[in-house]
């Protein structure tokens, strides 16, 4: 029986790659990468598609994103940067929009740009 992640990759391979970037997590990809070149290529493509979105963020937005994906609460981010809680909420809302994320899980997938 296939796992849900495998089903997503197989189902979405027939659709456009941008759809894939929104529906499968980096952790799901890592779990599927066992000596499978097509899945490695898929992971590389996901990063390639996300890179321009990440690069378009301001320095401050990248700083907020880095803290959010640790994960820190909005209140903790505000304290760490010495800014108002409402400012953090606004940045986070803008990050979700600019990165085309519909959930915190999708936003967390951008941690690949901070790891290693």
TrEMBL record:
Keywords: DNA-binding, Transcription, Transcription regulation. Gene3D superfamilies: Winged helix-like DNA-binding domain superfamily/Winged helix DNA-binding domain (1.10.10.10). The keyword RNA-binding does not apply. It holds the Pfam family GerE. Residues 50-115 form the HTH luxR-type domain. PROSITE patterns: HTH_LUXR_2 (PS50043). One of its GO terms (biological process) is regulation of DNA-templated transcription. This is Regulatory protein, luxR family.
